[in-house]
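Reviewers of the previous submission asked for a worked example of the structure-prediction workflow described in the proposal, so we include one complete record here. The input consisted solely of the amino acid sequence. No template or homolog information was supplied to the procedure at any stage.
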Amino acid sequence: MTILNKMEMINVFLSIAGIIGKMMMFPGLSVLLICGLGGLSITYLLRPFFIDTKSEFFKTKDKELVQRYRTVYLLVCFGLSITVLGVLFYLQHWNGFEKMTRVGGIASLIGIFGLMYIKRIIPEIKINSLLYFRLTVAIFAAIYIFQNS
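From that input alone, the workflow returned the following structure tokens.
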């Protein structure tokens, strides 16, 4: 388990605790929400710079292949990060959440199509299904916020 995976788990825990605290209207627990979702966004922004041939994104032994498709992974992580920030702004009732969730949702959608294209042209490459799940959740969050704003 890499340091980024551990950071992600801690930030998800802080986010869930902050969301529960916000729903229960406990004073001061929005700090957990800000730290959790902000940290999660930073974690997603850092991920593309730490991929190698053993990363969770690509399971392959070809270093050139990993370098070639790093741009798609950068777009995927950018979309996830911006969507998470949009959700944070939405939950805190701050301005700017609509644009963030739109941009993040569109980038995540393009990222999913990019991943499907990579999988189609290189069938022997293994793409982690957890990445697809993260992107799907980001797109649904963007759609939900767009519908309710």
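Residues 97-121 form the longest helix (25 residues). We consider this example representative of the routine output the project will generate in years two and three.
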